Amino acid sequence: MFFLSYKANARVKLAKTGHGPHSSKLVVIVLFCCYLCCSVAIVLYCCYLCCSVVIVLFCRYLCCCVAIVLYCWYLCCSVVIVLYCCYLCCSVVIVLFCRYLCCCVAIVLYCWYLCCSVVIVLYCCYLCCCVAIVLYCCYLCWSVVIVLYCCYLCCCVVIVLYCCYLCCSVIICVILGIVCV
What is the pTM of this model? Predict the structure, then answer.
């Protein structure tokens, strides 16, 4: 019992000095601690919310940056692909134009070859005709010469025969004149 009264006395003493469980200082300290704990909790929660918002905004910023970088990359790739396609188209057009030019040159050269061949054939025909005309003229000249020579021979024969005839006539006349005398 002494212990219980000692305990009660201690409580009364603590209450009088302001250090007991019902002391106003203790209530103020507890309330202040609760206030501090709540303030710290609220501050920490606000920091958590702010950090969450900052993290979300930073993630959105990063996503936007990545999206912008990917879109720029897409645009660059599109431009490169378009330029490469233009290069390919221009290359095809240049190749086709070069083939067209080569074909035109080949056609012109072939036509030139055909014209030269025709000219050569016509010139050869001309030369052949000239040679044929010259040979025909020579043939005609020789024919005329042969005819003239034959005429000359015939005339000579006729003259010889006529001379023979005259000689024979003279001889006959002389023989007949001798016989008649």
Answer: 0.35
Q: What's 20's DSSP letter?
A: S
* Cβ 87 vs Cβ 81: under 8 Å: no
Give the other-Cβ count within 10 Å of 14's Cβ: 15
Distance of CA 126 to the CA centre of its chain: 50
Residue 44 lies in a domain: no
Length of the chain measured in residues: 181
Residue at 159 is within a domain: yes
- Tell which residue, 38, 14, 36, 11, has the closest CA to residue 25: 14
Do residues 166 and 174 lie in contact, with contact meaning Cβ atoms separated by under 8 Å? Answer: no
| Token couple for 74 | 């897409």
- Number of structural domains found in the chain: 1
Each residue's pLDDT tens digit, 21-57? 556 777 788 888 888 899 899 989 988 988 899 898 9
